[in-house]
Amino acid sequence: MSAPQHKKMQSCPVSVVIPTFNRRLLLKRAVDSVFNQTVQCSELIIVDDGSTDGTSELLKNLSSSAKIICKIYSQDNSGPAAARNYGVRQAMFPFIAFLDSDDHWQRRKLERQYECLVDNPARRLSHTRETWLRRGQYLNQKKKHIPGNGDIFAQCLQLCAVGMSTVMMKRELFDEVGFFDESLRCCEDYDLWLRISCRYPFLLVDTPLTVKEGGREDQVSSQYALGMDRMRIYSLRKLLDSGVLDCWMHLMALQELKKKITIFGNGCLKHNKTELGRSFFDLIPVYEELAMKKFPQLGERS
Question: How many whole angstroms separate alpha carbon 70 and alpha carbon 41?
């Protein structure tokens, strides 16, 4: 697998981070989509998260153009959050772009996104629209999944509103909001977008520059589908406990916490996990009381 040579191609100060686990065949397509960009990144970082399918052999044969620094790392299987964090910590450049190994980019993705961030220096994170594929078939996105621009905190509370492979962000953001939560094997992106969107607006490049693949059993969203509500409850509790939210953001997060607890708790009761369900329902009055102590004006609204 080799990178094409582009004599006149310009580069941008972007480190691309690709975590991978047992996706040897799909990884080649992802890497090729990075090499084939109209404007190249300055660094490609691949973190093999303990693959056992021959990924390491594929990576040994990886070569790059002279304009791209390629770094290959391996670690024991620790999940996508840990793999991305490892990659970010090795990054040398001020912008980070993420690409999951089962997704790929359109050729102008880095060019368009980097230009937009340069033209809007106050914005710290950009994302793009996506084309969705499931088992090779194109999918239409529901309205709730259409990515937003600017203040997207309310959307981020409801669901993971930003596609991981669409993101380019300033490296310095991690120093402010923290890295991916490595205790989460899934929903670690939901967790990070909450921490960023409550502080900063997002910049949307309103063009489908990322191709997202879905519908496979090896994806963490499939493996942890039954536990996603519980993980998001954990993230909302962390956010409410952090003290970074203003009054009205706190109210929105509290309402979403109550909604997700109700869904998860009822599911527990339905499946005879009564004690677990009640333990989650018991959290609602605790967080309501804490909110009213911190923001007395919420008393009549919560």
Answer: 10
User: What is residue 4's predicted lDDT score, i.e. its pLDDT?
Assistant: 46
Cα 180 from chain centre: 9
Give which of 84, 260, 110 is closest to 189, Cα–Cα.
84
* Model pLDDT, residue 6: 40
Q: List residues bridging with 133 in a β-sheet.
A: 138, 213
Q: How far apart are CA 257 and CA 259, in angstroms?
A: 5
Strands 137-139 and 125-134: antiparallel
CA angle 89/91/96 to nearest 5° reads: 105
pLDDT confidence of residue 142: 78
What's the CA gap between 42 and 12, in Å, rounded? 6
- Splitting the chain (302 residues) into consecutive groups of 10 residues, what average pLDDT does each group show? 50 96 92 95 96 89 71 95 98 97 96 96 96 78 87 97 97 97 95 98 97 69 66 97 96 97 95 95 96 81 48
Contact 78, 44 (CB under 8 A): no
DSSP structure string for the chain: --PPP-TT--EEEEEEEEEESS-HHHHHHHHHHHHT-SSEEEEEEEEE-S--SSHHHHHHT----TT-EEEEEE--S--HHHHHHHHHHH--SSEEEE--TT-EE-TTHHHHHHHHHHH-TT--EEEEEEEEEETTEEEPPPGGGS---B--HHHHHHS--S-GGG-EEETHHHHHH----TT-SSSHHHHHHHHHHTTS-BEEEEEEEEEEEE--TTSHHHHTGGGHHHHHHHHHHHHHHHS---HHHHHHHHHHHHHHHHHHHHHHHHTT-HHHHHHHHTHHHHHHHHHHHH-GGGTTT-
Looking at residue 210, its pLDDT comes to 97
